[in-house]
Write a structure and sequence with these properties.
Blueprint (H helix, E strand, L loop, with lengths): L2 H23 L6 H20 L9 H26 L5 E3 L8 H12 L7 E3 L2 H45 L3 H8 L6 H23 L15 H18 L8 H20 L25 H10 L1 H13 L5 H4 L1
Antiparallel strand pairs: 1-2
Helix pairs in contact: 1-3, 1-5, 2-3, 3-4, 3-5, 5-7, 5-8, 6-7, 6-8, 7-9, 8-9, 8-10, 8-11
C-alpha cells in the first residue's frame, strides 16, 4: 500500500467536506477556500467587464460561481477518493477477469460510485474496500443533497435582495431626491414610515448575507435591482441627516435606528469580503436641499463629515466592486 497516496487522498476528502459543509451549513460566512475562489472569480469578471465595456458578463457571474464551487467539490472528491483507491493495487478489480483495475479505471469507479450510478463492470477487491466504497457513495449522495438544498433558499434570498434594492430605488433616484420626496413642507413623516419598513428588511438581508456569502455576486445590469448601489444611496441619505441635522422632530430616532441596521450590514460585509480602498467621494448635497432648514454651520458640518469619511470610502469601494460608479448614486 502506498501510504503517501492514501494520506493525500484522505486529506483532500476531509478538506473538501469541511469546505462544502462550512459553505452550505454555516450561518456566519462561507469557508476560506470558497470565499477565495468566489472573490477572485468576481474580480476577474469585473476587470474583464471594465476592460471591454461592450461585454456585460457580471449578471451571469453569481450562478457561475455557485456552479464552479459545486463542480470543484465534485472534482476534489473524485481526486481524493481516486488517490485512496489507487493507494492499493487490488482495491478495485475487473468483474470479469478479477485483475486489478487500472489507475484511470479506479477514478472511473469513484465517479460513478459518488453519483450512485454503478454499472457492475468493476468491483471492490475485498470487504475493507467494500466498506470504503459505501462511504464513497454516501459522501457523494450527502453532498449532492446538501447542494440542492442550498441552491433553492439561495434563489429565494436573491429575490429578497432584489426586493430590498427596488424598495430603496423607488424612494428616489439620488440621496437628495429621497429626502425631498419624504419632505412634505413641514416634516418627514412620509419617509419615517418607509424607514420603518426598511429596518427589518436590511436586518434580514444581513442574515442572508452571512448565510449565503455568494449573494454579493448576484449582479443585475439594472441599477434599480443593485443592492450594493441602493444601500450606498440609503447610507448617504442617513449621512446627510447626521451631518446637517435636517430632521429635528421627535421621530428623528428612526434615522438612527436605520443607521444601526446599516452599521450591521457594513460589519457583515467587512468581515466576509475584502475590497481595494478608493478615495472618499464628494458630498454635494447641500445645494440641492435649499428648501430645508439647514442651520448647521459649515465648520461643524465639515467636522462631522470627517468623522464618517472612512465609512463613506468603504461604501464607495462596495459600489466599485459591484462594477458601478459613484455617479450612479449622486445622479
Amino acid at each position: 500500500m502506498d501510504i503517501i497516496l492514501l494520506l493525500s487522498g484522505i486529506i483532500i476528502v476531509i478538506i473538501t467536506n469541511i469546505d462544502a459543509l462550512s459553505t452550505i451549513l454555516r450561518l456566519n460566512g462561507g469557508s476560506k477556500i470558497s470565499n477565495f475562489i468566489a472573490r477572485n472569480v468576481w474580480r476577474i469578471s469585473v476587470f474583464v467587464s471594465g476592460k471591454f465595456s461592450g461585454i456585460s458578463i457580471l449578471s451571469n457571474i453569481g450562478p457561475l460561481i455557485v456552479v464552479t464551487l459545486f463542480s470543484l467539490w465534485a472534482v476534489l472528491l473524485m481526486i481524493g477518493y481516486g488517490l485512496i483507491y489507487n493507494s492499493y493495487v487490488n482495491s478495485i478489480v475487473e468483474t470479469s477477469t478479477e485483475l486489478p483495475a487500472s489507475i484511470t479505471a479506479k477514478f472511473y469507479y469513484v465517479g460513478y460510485t459518488l453519483t450512485s450510478l454503478g454499472n457492475g463492470d468493476l468491483k471492490t477487491g475485498n470487504d475493507f474496500w467494500r466498506i470504503v466504497s459505501n462511504f464513497t457513495g454516501l459522501n457523494g449522495m450527502f453532498l449532492l443533497s446538501l447542494a440542492i438544498s442550498y441552491f433553492i433558499p439561495l434563489m429565494n434570498a436573491v429575490v429578497k435582495q432584489r426586493t430590498l434594492a427596488t424598495y430603496i430605488s423607488n424612494l428616489g433616484k439620488s440621496p437628495h431626491e429621497i429626502i425631498l420626496n419624504g419632505w412634505n413642507g413641514k416634516n418627514f413623516n412620509l419617509i419615517h414610515d418607509q424607514f420603518k419598513e426598511l429596518y427589518p428588511m436590511i436586518l434580514l438581508h444581513c442574515e442572508q448575507q452571512l448565510a449565503y456569502p455568494v449573494l454579493m455576486y448576484f449582479h443585475s445590469p439594472n441599477p434599480s435591482y443593485s443592492t450594493q448601489l441602493n444601500l450606498a444611496k440609503l447610507d448617504e441619505v442617513l449621512s446627510i441627516q447626521e451631518v446637517y441635522k435636517i430632521d429635528k422632530s421627535d421621530n428623528a430616532y428612526i434615522w438612527g435606528n436605520l443607521r444601526m441596521a446599516m452599521d450591521k450590514y457594513l460589519k457583515v460585509v467587512k468581515n466576509s469580503y475584502s475590497f481595494k480602498k478608493v478615495d472618499v467621494p464628494d458630498f454635494p448635497y447641500k445645494d440641492n436641499l435649499y428648501s430645508l432648514d439647514i442651520s448647521v454651520s459649515e465648520p461643524s458640518a465639515t467636522k462631522l463629515l470627517n468623522k464618517i469619511e472612512d465609512r463613506r470610502a468603504f461604501i464607495a469601494s462596495l459600489v466599485k466592486n459591484d462594477g458601478r460608479n459613484w455617479q450612479d448614486i449622486t445622479g
